[in-house]
Please model this.
Amino acid sequence: MKRLLPVLMGFALLLLSSTEGWGADFQKGLDAYNNDNYAIALRELKPLAEQGNANAQYYLGRTYEFGTNQIGGDRSGNDETAVKWYRLAAEQGHAGAKSSLGNMYAEGSGVEKNYETAVKWYTLAVEQGDATAMLRMGLMYKRGEGVPRNLETSVKWYKRAAEKYRPTAEQGDARAAYELGRIYGGRLYFPMDIGAAIKWYTIAAKQGLVLAQYELASRYEIGGKGGAFKDASKAIKWYEIAAEQGHAYSAHTLGQNYEFGSNGFPQDFLLAIKWYKFSFERDHNRMGAFGLAKIYQEMRESELEDILSYMYFNISTANTTALMERVKLGRTMSAKNRQIAKDLTRECVAKNYKGCGEIVSIQKKLNPKIISKKNERLLPKSGSGSGFFVSKMGHVVTNAHVVRSCKRISVGENTNKQISVELVAKDKKNDLALLKMTSEKTKSLLVKLGIKVVPLASKGLLRSDDVELGEKVMVAGYPYGELFSNTVKVTRGIVSAIRGIGDDSSQFQLDAAVQRGNSGGPVYDEKGNIVGVVVAQLNKLKMAKAIGSLPENVNFGIKASTVRQFLTSSGLPTKWSSRSNSMSTKELAKIAQKQTVMVVCHQ
Model:
């Protein structure tokens, strides 16, 4: 939690200081610090700090205080080093350094905890107009630490800080706006005003201040009283923006919400894995490793998931629960697979936690004969799902979550036959996305790759009538990408409910076997009409904990009527299908082979 103090406790800022004379190296170090790139900040700031630059000394202290996970070293030792640099800057009259020294004494970090000394340093910083020190004085009076507890005086300090920040914030200063967001957002025991917090955080977030982006996302995730301002789509947007700037905790929060389907986020294990991995690799976050271990347990379909889960439990064994879970899992695994997981753990540490648990590496260890150099390229290097053609112009329908946060998207019969597409439209609420081939040479490329496009037939593709309870259906798609084979897979089942999760009338429930990678694939009736799009698989272990038994084959699809509305609103009106002759499973499979594609999200 120490590294989260910039979020929870704030910066000591010199809002009115000029950057003239700091030099390009200082600015590079400052930019790195502001974006949580502590290793680069250390490299750029330390030489300047050693030359006596007070601003560099101050931010170097911040880097040592909050960057242990990236710069290495012992946390307590780094805190002591931070105090050293703060003191040197404070001796030169740096107000922010004085405020930070107050923080260190208040927290007992790098020095013996002493509230009276903390108040002394805050007071010195306040005399120079340091607004963050004013905030901390408000907190000290709120808690009665180093001063008599006095709520009235506490509020006065918060108001004084707000007055200090407001003029520069109104002029667009990102840091001042961020601090005002914290004041009104409930971080500082001040009367909460979520609307005002969002206003100020937005100003800072749009200027690229990563901590403001995180806080803005957090406000939208939690919302205010009675659910006011709560907006999962905006929370996802700003968490992703912050994460893509390197903010590990935003990535971890995304991973948690996608894992559990909480706070309005859709439950999506693949996205959870993506963001947990980002957090883990970026910040060596053991909780990220623990999250990955738990997800692979919940996705447990083969020894592959067992090995990955055991490896991540190994890495997160500082967590007592992780240690117990590893022991429990290990009892169900063969000695060979436990050893593979241990070897992978050592490899992961040796690679500085980058690129851990690669599927090809595990498959080679399990059975070296299965994976050859030729076959390695068949395994998707990024996330994948399914989709199907809906026009002669190369339009493809899939799930919105399949193509979220992609640097590039492609579709094809397998990973060897892929064509780039653009995202034309998406509907986050209904989890639908429309893609379109963009290359001017699409037709010749399709012929060259041997990809057969069977778009909208003259009679249409989508059935006008909603699914009926008990009717037979067939699902087509690419479960597990191409891990097991490079062709489309089909499976049969029935409609087991005509509404989805939470009595959602836009979805239906089916019992056909659906795995990760099926998302976005078509659901056919017995006559070859598309009646829906695969959207989600129920979290079995989570449900087992809730109801006391393990549900099997509880999966969901988006109704064709909802898909048609989406296509029409996206400028692609479609005809209803009117096929009335029943087909055999083989005949349905032939249609699915021609219409279904693998969708690859390149990250």
